[in-house]
Every structure is written in C-alpha cells, then in structure tokens.
C-alpha cells in the first residue's frame, strides 16, 4: 500500500474517507490515528475536547476493520471517526456537560445516537467542549476552559456546541454530534465555517442527551460538507421507543436529496426570504454573503420570494422564558444525592439534606446556569406562571402558525444564520442580553420544531466565516438538503475552493506524520 500524510487524510470529506475505506486504500485504525495525531497537535491552541478517548477509538477502529475484512455489510460511514458533544452520554467515557457538578461521572449506558454510531462502526474520538449544560453562545461558559475558533484563536467558536464545530473546522474530526436548543449547532457552524444541522424535533432520538430544555433540544450532525451531514443524519435518525417524543416514522431520503442537489438544478423550487430575520441588525459582510448566495440560488433556477413571519421578532423573548423554565425543572435533579458533585455544609451549619443541596448547587453550577435557573423558577412561580410562561407558549403557537403559513407558499425558508461573525473573547460574556441576541435567527426553528441547517456562505470582509440558513417543513428534512447541497457546490465554484481552504492550520504541519495506507 502507498503512504499518505496526515494532511492528505484529514482534509478529505467524510464521504471520501468512506470511499477510501471501502476500496481498501486506508484502514479505520490508520484514519483514526491520523485524527488523533491532529488532536495532539491542535489541542494546545484549539481546546475543542474535554476528553480524548484515543485508546478506545483505536479499539473501535480495529473492530470496524475486522468487520469489513469479514465481509460484513456496513453503513457508508463505517470506519470514519467522529467526536461527540459532552452533552451526550457515552458508556465508559466521562460525561460532564462541561459542568463541575458532573465532574468524574462515567455513564453506565450509551445514548441511542452513540449506540447507533457504534453499530455503524464509527470510532468515537472523544467528548467535545460546550457552554455548561449547553447554556451559552460562545463556549466561554464551560466550567473547564474556553474553546478557540480555528479561524482566529482570539475569537469564540460560537456555542453552546463550539467544541464540536471547532473540532471539525480544525480537522481534528471529520464529523461530530452536537445538540441544538436555540441554535447551538447552527450558530457555531456559521462562526467556524462548518455545516450544522438541527433535524426535525423528534427525528433523532434524545434518549441519552442530557436535558437542558426538553421541548427544544435536538441532537444533530456537524460536518464540513452537506453530504457528510446527510450521511450522518441517516445513521443517527429514526424512531426510538425509549424517547417519548420520537417520531414513529421513517426518515425521508436525506442522502438522495443531498446528492441530487449537487446537480444544481433548482427549477420549480420556491425559496422564501424571511424579512424579519435579515437586513437591519445584521453585520454588512454577513448580509452581503447572504445576498450573493440568494443570487446563486436564483441562477440555479430557484424562485426567490419575500416571506413575512410576523411573530418571529417575538421568538427571542418567548425562548428566554420557555427555555429557562425547562432548565429550572431539568436541573433540579442535580442535588448531590445520587451522583455527581456533593458538597457538605461547613462546620457550624446544620448538616441537613437541604443545606447539602444548596452548597452543592452553589459550588457545582456556573453563573450562567444559575442565572437561567433563577429566571426560570421565577417564570414558573405562583402568580407569574400565566403571565410569563403561559404567554410565551402562546407566542410559540403563533410562531408555529407562521411556519405553517409560509410553507404553504414556499418550499424552504432562508436567512443568515448569525447576525455577526465570530466575536472576541470577553466582548459579550458580561452582557447576557447581547449574548442572547446571537441566536435571534436560529431560535424560531426550535420553537417551531422544524428542521434547519447552516452552511458556510464564504468569508465576511473581516476574513471570518459567514453562515447561510435553511428552514424546511416538519418531517421534511430532505427538502432543505437539496438546495443546501446545490448552494454549497455553487459557492465552492465562486470561491474556487471550499471555504476551509482559506484556513491557516499550523497545527497540521506538526501533526503531518506519514500514515501507512
């Protein structure tokens, strides 16, 4: 067999890696080792991971190779390694949700999506960093360390899933899993130049995803190409009886739609521009890339129409009542009684269960988590429930109706993913309201339960990535994959190469050990 450098291997798409594996040009063990080499080199500057599971990943890779050699029929991505956001439980691998309150907890079971990855023969490289309990838009709220944006390590990678996005953007992993409650896959995707997908609510099992806001949370793929996300989406998606919110239906033909999109024929497709989430308030470079992308879609035959979703401007307010309310409820289980951190009251303080819980939660939770618990508890309290939580749920219904009305007129809706490119560390962390505004364009999809996707739309005037967002009707995730793949292909032509070709990667030079194929 020939030899290939780490650079050659890790810069391939996951689909191309799969082809090399199928052709016998590289083994899963070699491919996994190549990514572990990059992780070793990149982590001092990127810090995308909380836990690297190198030995376990190599064992899983070796098992995948044995299954392939034995002639077992394997999924297309078999042997391709993947990283998993630390909000998703992994048997035998520490899972903390980036919180001190779960430090040292090793789950005795796998999330459904992790079981599916293992069944598919995909080695798990490790657990990626996030804002504590997925609460934040910058990954600055991790209890352990921030993650740096590979495009500029002085800037944030977005959040809460900044670790997964940064790992994929920096070539530490070809694929990753994230969770998206209000944009936590898509907003980091926009800021790091990766593809981020929030599937239809209930389309991917949430069993084993640590709950933040149960009516909003959704696990989804992170990748560098639309096809790679589609391939991963088909592996993790589908009905799961262990998740009471799981949709008891087959997934639509996602991979087929993504491959059809590369033909760049969008004749007959109507694409609606949501006027409430574009234009004023969006960074000029972000809006410019969005407008250019619309022209490319039109050149491929799509009809571009303006669509009004009049209640979308109220999404942010409704979300920041519903989400903290569910956070307050879900995080009540972290009390020091059964697992995780336990802090006993100091001498002189009554050694009661109530005091132990109070001291444990004070020591175990960070400021942002405490802020949201307090806000949510207030919104759910007697005398305020109807005025706050009840009203927010009514707004949510109006947003769902806005989506339904819009999809009667168009096939997909589009908007910029994030109002700005990546901001510098410290610029917003002490200004929660400004931080919350980062999710203004992504939150409607979570409130409406519809699928949404962010793809790279090029670089802004500041040289940083910009995201372009698609929304599709519930349970029709395939509908957004076709125009997304078409736009990706057209943008690659416009920019002469994929966006990541502009990324400077000094860590790859030092990781560039030859891997025997």
Name the overall outline: globular
Specify Rg, calculated over alpha carbons: 22 Å
What is the C-level CATH assignment of the domain at 3-267 and 422-516?
Answer: Alpha Beta
Low-confidence stretches: none
Q: How do the strands line up in the largest sheet?
A: 2-4-3-5-7-6-11-12-10-8-9
* Helix content bin: 40-55%
CATH superfamily of the domain at 3-267 and 422-516: Amidase signature (AS) domain
CATH topology of the domain at 3-267 and 422-516: Amidase signature (AS) enzymes
The average pLDDT score comes to 95
**Structural class estimated from helices and strands:** alpha/beta
Key features?
13 strands; two-stranded antiparallel ribbon; alpha/beta; 517 residues; single chain
Brief characterization of the structure:
By secondary structure, this protein is α/β, with parallel strands linked by helices.
């Amino acid at each position: 067999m020939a030899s290939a450098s780490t650079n050659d291997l890790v810069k391939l798409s996951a689909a191309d890696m799969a082809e090399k594996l199928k052709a016998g040009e590289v083994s899963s063990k070699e491919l996994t080792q190549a990514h572990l080499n990059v992780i070793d080199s990149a982590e001092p500057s990127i810090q995308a991971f909380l836990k690297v599971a190198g030995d376990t990943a190599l064992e899983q890779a070796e098992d995948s190779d044995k299954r392939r050699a034995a002639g077992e029929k394997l999924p297309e991505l078999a042997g391709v390694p993947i990283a998993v956001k630390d909000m998703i439980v992994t048997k035998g691998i520490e899972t903390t949700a980036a919180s001190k309150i779960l430090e040292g907890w090793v789950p005795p079971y796998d999330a459904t999506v992790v079981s599916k990855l293992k069944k598919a023969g995909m080695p798990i490289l490790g657990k990626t960093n996030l804002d504590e309990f997925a609460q934040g838009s910058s990954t600055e709220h991790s209890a352990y360390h921030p993650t740096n944006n590979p495009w500029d390590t002085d800037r944030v990678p977005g959040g809460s899933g900044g670790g997964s996005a940064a790992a994929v953007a920096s070539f530490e992993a070809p694929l990753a899993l994230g969770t998206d409650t209000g944009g936590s896959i898509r907003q980091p995707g926009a800021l790091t130049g990766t593809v981020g997908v929030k599937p239809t609510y209930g389309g991917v099992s949430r069993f084993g995803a640590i709950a933040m806001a149960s009516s909003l949370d959704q696990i989804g793929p992170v990748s560098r190409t639309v096809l790679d996300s589609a391939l991963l989406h088909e592996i993790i998606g589908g009905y799961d009886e262990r998740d009471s919110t799981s949709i008891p239906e087959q997934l639509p033909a996602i991979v087929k739609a993504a491959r059809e999109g590369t033909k760049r024929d969008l004749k007959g497709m109507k694409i609606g521009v949501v006027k409430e989430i574009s234009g004023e308030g969006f960074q000029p470079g972000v809006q410019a890339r969005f407008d250019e992308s619309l022209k490319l879609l039109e050149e491929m035959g799509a009809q571009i129409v303006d669509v009004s979703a009049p209640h979308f401007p109220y999404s942010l307010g409704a979300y920041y009542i519903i989400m903290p309310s569910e956070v307050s409820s879900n995080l009540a289980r972290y009390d020091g009684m059964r697992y995780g951190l336990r802090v006993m009251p100091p001498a002189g303080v009554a050694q009661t269960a109530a005091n132990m819980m109070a001291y444990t939660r004070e020591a175990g939770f960070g400021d942002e988590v405490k802020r949201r618990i307090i806000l949510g508890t207030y919104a759910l309290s007697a005398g305020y429930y109807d005025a706050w939580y009840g009203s927010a749920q009514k707004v949510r219904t109006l947003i769902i109706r806005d989506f339904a009305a819009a999809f009667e007129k168009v096939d997909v809706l589009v908007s910029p993913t994030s109002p700005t490119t990546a901001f510098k560390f410290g610029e917003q962390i002490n200004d929660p309201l400004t931080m919350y505004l980062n999710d203004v364009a992504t939150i409607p999809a979570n409130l409406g339960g519809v699928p949404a996707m962010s793809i790279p739309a090029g670089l802004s005037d500041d040289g940083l990535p910009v995201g372009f967002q698609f929304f599709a009707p519930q349970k029709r995730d395939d509908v957004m994959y076709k125009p997304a793949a078409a736009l990706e292909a057209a943008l690659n032509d416009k920019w002469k190469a994929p966006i990541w070709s502009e990324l400077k990667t000094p860590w790859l030079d030092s990781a560039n050990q030859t891997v025997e194929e």
